[in-house]
Amino acid sequence: MMKLIVLSLALTSGSASFFTNNTRLQKNMWENFKSEYGREFEIVEDIERFEIFVENLKIIDERNAAEATAGGSGQHGINKFADISQAEFKKRYLTTVVPEEMLNRPRLGGLKPVQSGSTADWTGTYTTPVKDQGYCGSCWAFSVTEQLESDSMRTLGTDYILSPQQLVSCDSSDAGCNGGWPTTAYDYIEEAGGMVQETDYPYSSGSGTTGTCDSSSITDPVLTVTNYYTLSSETDMASHVVSTGPVAIALDASAWSSYTGGILSTCGTSIDHAVQAVGVDTSSYWKVRNSWGTSWGESGYIRLAYGDNTCGLTYIPTYVDAALA
Description:
The protein is of the alpha+beta class. The protein contains eight helices and ten strands.
């Protein structure tokens, strides 16, 4: 019992390794995980998931070591993804499709630089609550939906919560749960005459099924996109976020499967996820809203180190001109 107590205290303090060769301690951690996240498996799958869980403990330690070496404060630990493999995580959550031709669109640059230490946080002012895409690679749809919501709040004074399901099921230029791209989704919204509210077309793809478009649910759009803009650099992003509002971004989230808090400074730059930057402290970090529910990260958010293009976040930052449909 004393060993279990000591291990628990060490893990919560972030000062010790998560992986252990002690099978009894591994099993105890596994049972605690299942209890906390409501997991129940048949015997064979339980054995398989336990093996994945133990492998993920090693990955957590590797990521924490890399973060410490880089001098970052990001923390990795056991979260709701601890029982799925990295391959499963990528397939279920990281399926943004990157059309290279979209990168040739002119970008806005030369915005007035902000001073170091400039801050902004639009959470609750120009944002709706954190959403959950479930086991569907629909991050692109959530990122676009959230950006239109934010820009309409900012310029039109609306408070609509829009329907990501409309984009997932009805935007034929993208691939639903198999991925998509923000700018093609903006084009769809304009061509379709706008987006309907979540109450008109509730989200139903959380189990991983794209579904067919229900045309009867999209007859009453409330907001549309008349244009979108792509920013040129991290400093231009900061200028916009500090002075104006959030921006939709695409980045590499492959290391986010174990994120639990802090300012993350180590991750890749292979673009595989779409989210929204809702705040910034130009002396320290970006505040980013994810679409994996409030039980992930810092109540659904992650902080990324500022100034180093962390996770490739400058790949294609966008905002829109919103209009009533």
